Amino acid sequence: MELASKYNPADVEGKWYQYWLDNHLFSSKPDGREPYTIVIPPPNVTGVLHMGHMLNNTIQDILVRRARMEGKNACWVPGTDHASIATEAKVVNKLAAQGIKKTDLTRDEFLKHAWEWTDEHGGIILKQLRKLGASCDWDRTAFTMDEKRSESVIKVFVDLYNKGLIYRGVRMVNWDPKALTALSDEEVIYKEEHGKLYYLRYKVEGDAEGRYAVVATTRPETIMGDTAMCINPNDPKNAWLKGKKVIVPLVNRVIPVIEDDYVDIEFGTGCLKVTPAHDVNDYMLGEKYNLPSIDIFNDNGTISEAGGLYVGMDRFDVRKQIEKDLEAAGLMEKVEAYENKVGFSERTNVPIEPKLSMQWFLKMEHLAQIALEPVMKDDIKFYPPKFKNTYRHWMENIKDWCISRQLWWGHRIPAYFLPEGGYVVAETAEKALEMAKEKTGNASLTMADLRQDEDVLDTWFSSALWPFSTMGWPDKTPELEYFYPTSTLVTGYDIIFFWVARMIVFGTKVMGKIPFDTVYVHGIVRDELGRKMSKSLGNGIDPLEIIKDYGADSLRFSLVTGNSAGNDMRFSNKKVEAARNFCNKVY
To answer: Whole-prediction pTM value?
Structure first.
C-alpha cells in the first residue's frame, strides 16, 4: 500500500487506541514490579471536556506512559464526581423546562431524575478522554456516588463523628439564595463590584439637641437586623457616644452603643452597625457581647417576617427602595461611589448571604496540623515549590468545614432523629434503630419513628477520599495494599484548597499514610489575549473539534510545549498548526 504524502491522524489514532483497549494494554494488576499510581481528578458528570481538562490529562498521560516505559506497573484510575450543587441545578433546570418543579416531587422521585441525568451524561466526558488518547485503566472507572465509594464516605463520616470531630450546631455560614444551600468558604469567589457606600443617621435616644451618629454601610437593607452600634474605645471623635443608645433608622429600634477594638477608626465614620445574623464579624461581636440575633432573610434572599419592613421583597430591590425611603425621612447623610469586594457562589454566580444556620461541621484544627507536617517535611513535594507556602498559609488559617448541603443529590447524612429529640449517627438505618432503642430505652421503636437528616454531604467530602476509596477501602484489597499511597497528583492551582489539602487531611487521618508523594500543579489555559475561557466571553474552544481537525497528538504537543509547571498558558490555533507540522515531519 502506498503511503500518503501527509500524515492523517484520523486514519491512525482511533484505530490504534482501539487496538490498545482490545489488548488490555492499559490494565494494571498488583505484581512484583514497582507501582506507579495516578488517580484522575474526577471531572463533574455535568461537564464536557474543556482545555483545562486536556492539559491536566495530557500531563497525567505523559507521566503514566513514561512510568510504563521505565518498567513500572503504571495504574491510572479514571472516574467522575457527582457534583451535588451543579448536577442538582442541571436537573432542576431540565425539569423546569418540562413544567415540573422540584418542590412538586418527593425526594425519591427527584433522585430518579438525577440518576437518569447521570446515566445519560456521566460517561460522556470519559468517552471524550479516550479521544485524547488517555491511557487509563478503564476497568477501574469509579464514581463518587457508586456503591463502594458511598460505603467509604458514610464510614468516614461515622468514624469522625464518633471521634468527636464532627458536630452539629448553629453557626454563621455562606448561604447561596439560588441553590438554597450552605457553601464552604472555598466555594465563595470574591469579585470587585462598583457599589455605593451609604452614610445613615442613627439618632441618639433622648438627646435634647437631636444629635445623631453616622454609620457607613454598603448594605443598608440589613438595618432591620441591627442589634447594636459599635465604636472603638480609643476613638476620640466618637467618645461622646459612650454609654448612649441610638435608634435604628426607619426601624425605630433602640440599640446600645458598645465598644470594641475591632472597629477600624479610619473606616467611614468609625461607627459600625452590628447585625449578628448577617455578617461573620458582627456574629463574633454578638457572641462576645451577648447581643440578640435577628435573621431578616428568608432562604431565597427575600425579607422575612422578622425584618418587619419590606417583607417578601428581594434583598436587592430593598436596597434600591430603602435608599429612597431613608432620603425621604432625612436619615441619609450622603451616598458615595464605592469599590467593594462581594462574595459570589462559585456554582450559581449569585451574591452569597452570610447567615446563621443549623449545619454539620468538621473540626479542622487538629486535622490541619497532622496534614501540614508531611508537606513541611517534604514527604509530599509540590512542583513548583512556591505552592508549598500557599498550602501552609491555608492550613495555618483554617476554619471548621461546613460539610452539610441543603440538597437531595449527594450522600445523605447518616444521622437519625428520635421522636423525643436528639439523634443517633450510624452507617445503616438498621444500626441506627438498634442504637435508638438503646438510647431511649424504648424497645418498641420502629423505623417509622426515626427521621433521617435531610441534608447531604459537601461533594468535596467524598472526593477527598478518592486516592483510597478507588482502591476498594474500607475493604483490605490487594490494590489498596499495592497501589496506595499513590505516586503523583496532577492538578490545577485553583483546587489546592478544595481537594488537594482535603485528600492529605483524610489520607493521613484515615489511612495513617500520605495519599501521594508529589503534587504537580499546572496553570490555567487562557485564550490568545490571556483571558480566562468562559461561556460569557464566548471564547471557549471545543477540544474535540481541534482533535478532529488536527489530531490528538497535535493538541497534546501544543499544550505541553513551552509550558512550565504552575504557570498559565495561552492557547492558539497557530501553536496547534505548528504541532501538526511537527507530527507530519516525524511521520
So the answer is: 0.88
